[in-house]
Design goal:
four-stranded mixed β-sheet, Cysteine Rich Protein, 2 helices, 30% strand, 70 residues, alpha+beta
Length: 70
């Protein structure tokens, strides 16, 4: 049996990273279950939200960015 745990989600005042997909300002940073991390702009965070929620152990969201994790 596989148990899926929900990622820990934190809101931070500001993110300084750039999106790993397109280079735009990051609105969401993800720490992966397997190690490593990724950053996403708002567009890519929303586009890949199901995958992000599935593989993340921790998610940091910039204050003011609305991101539905489900």
């Amino acid at each position: 049996m596989t148990t899926l745990l929900s990622a820990e989600i934190d809101t931070v005042e500001e993110l300084t990273e750039r999106c790993d997909r397109c280079g735009a300002a990051a609105k969401l940073e993800v720490v992966l279950n397997t190690g490593g991390d990724l950053a996403f702009c708002g567009h890519h965070a929303n586009r890949h939200r199901a995958d992000i929620a599935r593989v993340a152990s921790r998610i940091r969201i910039e204050d003011g960015f609305s991101w539905p994790s489900k």
